[in-house]
Design goal:
This protein is of the alpha+beta class. The chain has a single domain, classed as RelE-like (YaeB-like fold). It contains 2 helices and 5 strands.
Amino acid sequence: MQHVAYHRLAARELVASAKYYERRCPGLGDEFLDAVESATLDLRAHPEAGRREPHRASSWRIARFPYRLFYTAQPDRIWIVAVAHLSRRPGYWLRRMT
């Protein structure tokens, strides 16, 4: 299994989203992080199963939350370029693909 690494902006998105959910309801931020962890475990096991996206990227849906992990499967790692909300700024993460 490959390891997972986050683009620095994707890591910020992950933390900001967890904080947002925690402010809405105590414990929900942890549930969001658990859902992301579950998604990354599935992704590590089956990186080819993600949905194909533009510019060599794929995406994986996060259960229970309106988010997708946008990533590339590289020989030595899964590179997550965005932790993106599904109804905000589609495609903003594309510039991170270079």
